[in-house]
Design goal:
single chain, 420 residues, TIM Barrel, Immunoglobulin-like, 2 domains, 16 strands, globular
Length: 420
């Protein structure tokens, strides 16, 4: 790859947590969310991704509060969430705990009443009649015109504004592939010159790794959903992972079982995957790549959250999956996940996913029953399966010597970790 930018060191093996400020607390503000920072730090999260924090357009607004992704300015704060000083304070508090902050950047389109529509109408794509337009069927936004150099400069200046004003650490770029790759190359060069940033692209276009560190594992998500519905087999899953293994060196995929779009439009992970939701979450943390937790997954939140209206996350007390995610985050603290070798273990049974990860003296055995079928018997064998292994979820120790027989119940997952 001709123009590869090195990923910031602190993103190596990081867990990203997607923050939906509006629905997180009754207040829906930065200040109210800040109380959760120590808890998220303790859980093992390293990067906080805030869904767009900019003000929302009023013209053609959807629902009562509108979509975060239809902005009326790139350099202001959504008053729903507080004021600029609240956001700056939140970033400082997060960084003081060792967390990093990235913001959602929507470069493809704006709301209908963005101030650029008045100041620079020539910066927008027009239809045959000369009116603002949008080509993806979204009613509340209009497309920017990336042949306009002045607009591109203003966009990069707006990105740098947040670096200078709030000292953010990176960007999650919405629908990155709808914006020309050469723009992102330029934006990355100019932003990274201020300070090295972390760059996450919502795309599955491998070419965009020229500019981005991490891209979405959409194909994986669609295949696992098809698998859960019985329209794809375990081989389809392995084929997708094989496709990802062919990506250029130092490019990573982001794995998830939910995010804001999926939860609101296609259903919670429990609707989509049923009992396989947790085994698939285990996979998303222990395969090579980065992992995402969406607001409330640690609760677990089992409802679809409204996108355009106030609709509070359901927080269980105590948080039923907090320990589950804490253990998974803990397993990512060495180079095992990002740099280790992966070996898929052949097993009998069509619903069992079995693989090993290995790095220096560290080894990890992961066994997932992706079906509701009980009493799935199989054996695994590998030279790395020797010595004392611990199951992080039970804390129990086991001594393995090469070949082991297992029996998994429906949707059961087993993880064994050896550290020396």
């Amino acid at each position: 790859m001709a123009n590869h930018f090195p990923m910031v060191y602190w993103a190596n093996g990081a867990v990203i947590y997607e923050v939906n400020i509006r629905q997180y607390t009754p207040e829906g503000t930065f200040q109210a969310f800040a109380k959760h920072l120590p808890r998220l730090k303790q859980m093992g999260v390293r990067i906080l991704w805030f869904m767009p924090i900019t003000p929302i357009g009023k013209v053609h607004r959807l629902g009562t509060l509108g979509s975060y992704y239809a902005c009326s300015s790139y350099t202001d704060i959504n008053p729903e969430f507080g004021i600029m000083d609240d956001f700056k304070a939140l970033v400082q508090q997060a960084q003081a705990l060792g967390l990093k902050v990235i913001i959602d950047w929507v470069a493809n389109h704006t709301g209908w009443d963005h101030h650029w529509t008045k100041e620079h109408p020539d910066w927008y794509v027009k239809d045959a009649s000369g009116n603002f337009t949008e080509k993806n069927g979204w009613k509340d936004v209009i497309d920017l015109d990336y042949t306009q150099n002045e607009m591109r400069k203003a966009m990069i200046a707006a990105m740098q504004f947040w670096m200078h004003t709030a000292n953010i650490d990176g960007f999650r770029c919405d629908m990155a592939h709808l914006v020309p790759l050469d723009f992102w190359m330029e934006a990355r060069q100019q932003c990274d010159a201020v300070k090295p940033m972390f760059w996450l692209a919502e795309t599955e276009n491998v070419q965009y790794h020229d500019a981005f560190d991490v891209s979405y594992a959409w194909q994986w998500m669609h295949q696992t959903e098809a698998y859960a519905k019985g329209t794809a087999g375990i081989n389809n899953l392995y084929n997708t992972l094989h496709d990802y293994s062919q990506y250029p060196a130092d490019s990573y995929k982001l794995f998830f079982t939910s995010n804001h779009d999926e939860n609101s439009w296609n259903g919670t992970e429990y609707e989509k995957y049923g009992g396989a939701a947790l085994p698939l979450a285990v996979h998303s943390f222990l395969w090579r790549g980065l992992s995402l937790i969406y607001s409330g997954q640690e609760s677990p939140n089992k409802k679809r959250i409204s996108f355009f209206d106030k609709d509070l996350i359901e927080w269980q007390q105590p948080l039923g999956l907090e320990d589950f995610y804490t253990q998974l985050c803990g397993l990512r603290q060495t180079d095992l996940i990002m740099k280790g070798e992966t070996f898929i273990l052949p097993v009998s049974g069509n619903n069992i996913m079995a693989f090993m990860r290995h790095w220096h003296n560290e080894a990890l055995l992961v066994l997932l029953n992706l079906s509701g079928d009980d009493k799935q018997k199989f054996s695994v064998q590998h030279e790395w399966l020797n010595g004392a292994f611990t199951n992080p979820f039970s804390g129990l120790q086991f001594t393995f010597s090469g070949k082991i027989d297992f029996e998994l119940q429906g949707y059961e997952f087993l993880v064994y970790h050896k550290t020396q």
